[in-house]
């Protein structure tokens, strides 16, 4: 198909980050929203975050306890399967690695189901959450995270398409085998690598 | 699952729907029946290899065999939409792959459930696919459409919606004009708000399944208002087309 082109078509908006743009993506300066349904509103009083499944002793934090954990700043590029990418987004939050210090994961655990207030789920390999590769984001540009972007807290896994970065995160459940989450059951990729364009299940 | 492959569709018709919206009818070598609500990805390639991809909902129903209608709004400075509007003529080839999307779809199991469609601008496109399919299979589930448009000239599929309403007592549509209404208009002339949605929801005897599509702000607002009005969140299906203005 390399020989095919659309006569007269060319890049319209200059792109200074071409080497950071995965195939099929374009750069946006706003922060679009992708959610299957309405935005859940989660009162801080009833918010919790848990690590469950294949762990020796599950742990649950309240909002106040969670806030007290060591926070960091992260500057990352994000890539949404609906084709937009946004560069150098500035977050603050808690590294997943920091959370894992509070539990012992069972040896057979290889995958994680991230689950959210409101019922959303998404599956990820455990390795992709470890060693600073993922964090729980609680704010952007120094502001608390807005509800439509997943506030009060969302998972952020910059190396994968953004639907893997579950909004309104409620916990991580450790599993031995990979299982499809919400969008994955609806036909999206099990892994979601933007650099190889794993958008849909048939791209895996 | 076999990979959804790129294929070259031939433009066999171009229909000017409104001053800024055209429908591109593509004949596909590898057409498969879509579910109403699904979309195709469309890819343009420049001679130097640069590519741009966008998603476009399918306007046509699965009964229209072997081809798809993509109804596309021209955006000023839009990279893909402006090229399609300005640079494409009948006989041209366009790369697409699909059908895609497993959530914002009107499934067989939904055929007997009351249905509320809420659309803004080009967000009417997947809703039209639902209405066309619903009409083709002669479904009789109570169905309403609340459609927000800027002006009468910018109403996509306006006549077809009128015709559907005339033929089918179980379907009705309400339009709201946000910039300029027709002469002697006594209906809504503002952006979709809670009263408007409450009036729609009040027409049903049980909570309807809700499909909302359009610019992100409209979808966000309508979905939250429907929850406020007591529609259970799992009944609400939302498709956000993105913002049409950069910020
Ligand atoms: C699932 C899905 C289904 C969709 N279905 C439809 C459909 O049925 N019909 C439809 O019309 N659309 C649909 N869309 C939207 C569509 O995918 C495109 O987003 C839309 O056509 C705009 O693409 P574009 O390349 O023309 O504009 P882009 O080049 O992406 O620009 C978008 C807007 O931003 C502005 N802009 C962007 N970059 C710059 C810059 N650097 N400087 C100045 N301005 C800039 C442009 O002026 C334009 O208004 C759908 C989207 C999704 C996610």
Automatic annotation (TrEMBL), chain A:
Q: What is this protein called?
A: Sulfite oxidase-like oxidoreductase
Show the InterPro entries listed in the entry.
OxRdtase_Mopterin-bd_dom, OxRdtase_Mopterin-bd_sf
Which intervals hold domain Oxidoreductase molybdopterin-binding?
37-183
Recorded superkingdom: Bacteria
- Source species of the chain: Spirosoma terrae
Read off the CDD domains from this record: arch_bact_SO_family_Moco (cd02109)
UniProtKB/TrEMBL annotation, chain B:
FAD-binding FR-type domain sequence ranges? 4-106
Gene3D superfamilies, sorted? Nucleotide-binding domain of ferredoxin-NADP reductase (FNR) module, Translation factors
As one GO molecular function, the record gives: oxidoreductase activity
Protein name as annotated: Oxidoreductase
